[in-house]
Amino acid sequence: MNDFTNVFKKTLDFKSRSRRKEYWMFILWTSIISVVLSIVELVLNLEITSDLGLLSTIFSLVILIPSISLSVRRLHDIGRTGWWLLLSFIPILGWIALFVFTLLDSESGTNKYGPNPKEFGHDFKPVSN
Fold this sequence. Notes:
Elements: H1 2-9, H2 20-44, E1 47-49, E2 52-53, H3 54-77, H4 93-103, H5 117-120
Antiparallel strand pairs: 1-2
């Protein structure tokens, strides 16, 4: 759960790196929360339309920017620019490419986006001169 909350703390951080663990734990928790919210919507009949629930819509809006920043940081961790996230607009092939990128291991050492979070610990902040 700590990885999930850390993503919200770094919502506006589009310059550093995020590990695979942080990315996939966020995906896991958002999926669990989405399923629970969908069940609650069905039980309480909180649907806006037949396929759009009120709670799920609010949750999706809340996690939108943190999800984008996390994805950019994950791309930075493998040495790619955040602009690669635009592949998500290419159906199927773009989605597969981004999925593969999220599975790749961190680029070792320091890259142009900062030190490897695996080597320096999860909450490492480089000292600026």
